[in-house]
Amino acid sequence: MNLYYILFIYLALINIFAIIITVYDKHQAIRNGWRVKEFTLLLVSFLGGSISMYVTMQLIRHKTKKLKFMLGIPLIIVLQFIICAAVIYFVR
């Protein structure tokens, strides 16, 4: 199986999962129910779901007043782009 195909599937799944847990956490916040830990949200973002999580948070207005998320997730995105660029540069 092609490595790019595996990476694509992984990123698709982690981004779908990021959307699901972000929407779930917002739903639970409204209902005063069990919440997803902030560490878990940031970890999923770090593991590849950063762009979809950030877009979802903006769309549903969730955690948009928390500096940890509004600065942290964009920093994770930048870090991920730098790592990707470095890997592409050095693998050639």
Description:
By secondary structure, this protein is mainly α. The protein has helices at 3-31, 38-60, 67-91. Helix 1 crosses helix 2 and helix 2 (38-60) packs across helix 3 (67-91). The radius of gyration is 15 Å and the shape is globular. The two termini are 21 Å apart. The mean pLDDT is 96.
Low-pLDDT segments: none
Largest sheet: none
Structural class: mainly alpha
Percent range of helical residues: over 70%
Task: Give a topology summary.
Layout: H1 3-31, H2 38-60, H3 67-91
Helix pairs in contact: 1-2, 2-3
Index terms:
mainly alpha, 92 residues, globular, single chain, 3 helices
Quick structural overview:
The protein is an all-alpha fold and about 90 residues long.
